């Protein structure tokens, strides 16, 4: 009832929370037997524990190491987190967590200045999460919303096909709410700004970076929308144009990045060993350095270098381009 009261106050509704439920959107109705019935939308928006009634009405985030899903002994899941509660709580918790997994990349541009890019625009993460929770088919109870993050893309999987008259060909400019009461609720909380503008704005933001468009496909009863990694596409282009050797002296920026990485490690309660810091320093000094050269410079085995790099990949560094011809990129 606290959630109902908060929403009623947001709308400027002056009566009690119970009166709001009985007088609006058929949240609570009385059947022919005189019994009160609570609607699905009411449970999903205001229930203390909606998952008691709809166990799979939740959002699951899965992070994979690589660009494909692997199973069995080669399973490559590195993060698996589930968010429950009301739709509003799920959206807030999911966006907050996914943001912690979106890396920022700093690289040297052709102008000689360092540029920082995000893997995915902030608006795209928010809009995709809101759309998944708002427009999923809640009558499909066998699975939850799944957000799958790979090295090169993030895929939002939502139960239900494209609703109503919406098709891949017109999705940028056609709006249809599968769950209008949920959509109206989220609009009042400013998660839905203008009906129908979200997908078009996402596409425009991606187009501005030169990244591929959103990819839509239906697999059985699941709608899958794939968002390309923006930073990867940009840094790949940069890698093609970078000179064989970067400027040798970048001391001020190098020290700043290392200090920032150490600060991040401390704030995440994740200690970086001396070897790991030494590896990062060498990569900042020469992004083209080989693992063998790193091993020889630090004085540790090639296997130890491999192990340290694997532990830091996706968190502190990433490889841009192929093993031969690519370079190391420090993530901050």
Count of extended strands: 12
Question: What is the CATH T-level topology of the largest domain?
Answer: Heat Shock Protein 90
If helices are DSSP runs of H or I spanning 4 or more residues, what is the number of helices? Answer: 12
Neighbour order of strands in the largest sheet: 4-3-7-8-10-9
Sequence-ordered SSE layout with sheet pairings:
Layout lengths: L1 H10 L5 H7 L4 E3 L5 E3 L1 H7 L12 E6 L12 E7 L3 H15 L2 E5 L5 E5 L3 H14 L9 E5 L3 E7 L20 H9 L9 H12 L5 E5 L2 E7 L1 H12 L9 H17 L6 H12 L5 H8 L3 H11 L4 E4 L6 E4 L2
Parallel strand pairs: 3-7
Antiparallel strand pairs: 1-2, 3-4, 5-6, 7-8, 8-10, 9-10, 11-12
Helix pairs in contact: 1-2, 4-5, 5-7, 9-10, 11-12
């Amino acid at each position: 009832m606290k959630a109902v009261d908060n929403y009623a106050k947001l709308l400027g509704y002056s009566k009690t929370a119970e009166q709001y439920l009985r007088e609006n959107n058929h949240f609570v109705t009385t059947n022919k037997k005189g019994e009160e019935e609570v609607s699905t939308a009411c449970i999903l928006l205001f229930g203390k524990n909606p998952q008691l009634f709809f166990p799979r009405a939740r959002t699951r985030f899965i992070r994979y190491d690589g660009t494909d899903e692997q199973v069995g002994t080669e399973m490559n899941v590195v993060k698996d987190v589930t968010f429950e509660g009301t739709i509003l709580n799920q959206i807030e918790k999911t966006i907050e967590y996914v943001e912690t997994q979106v890396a920022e990349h700093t690289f040297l541009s052709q102008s000689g200045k360092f540029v920082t890019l995000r893997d995915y625009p902030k608006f795209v993460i928010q809009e995709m999460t809101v759309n998944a929770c708002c427009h999923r088919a809640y009558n499909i109870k066998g699975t939850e919303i799944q957000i799958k993050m790979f090295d090169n893309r993030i895929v939002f999987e939502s139960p239900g096909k494209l609703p109503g008259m919406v098709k891949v060909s017109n999705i940028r400019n056609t709006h249809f709410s599968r769950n209008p009461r949920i959509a109206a609720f989220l609009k009042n909380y400013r998660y839905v700004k203008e009906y129908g503008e979200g997908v078009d704005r996402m596409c425009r933001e991606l187009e501005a970076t030169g990244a591929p468009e959103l990819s839509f496909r239906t697999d059985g009863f699941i709608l899958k929308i794939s968002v390309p990694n923006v930073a990867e596409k940009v840094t790949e282009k940069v890698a093609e144009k970078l000179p064989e050797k970067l400027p040798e002296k970048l001391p001020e920026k190098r020290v700043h990045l290392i200090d920032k990485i150490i600060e991040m490690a401390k704030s995440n309660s994740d200690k970086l060993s001396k070897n790991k810091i030494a590896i990062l320093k060498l990569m900042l000094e020469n992004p083209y350095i080989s693992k063998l050269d790193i091993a020889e410079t630090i004085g540790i085995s090639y296997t130890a270098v491999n192990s340290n790099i694997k532990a830091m990949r996706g968190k502190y560094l990433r490889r841009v381009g192929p093993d031969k011809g690519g370079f190391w990129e420090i993530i901050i």
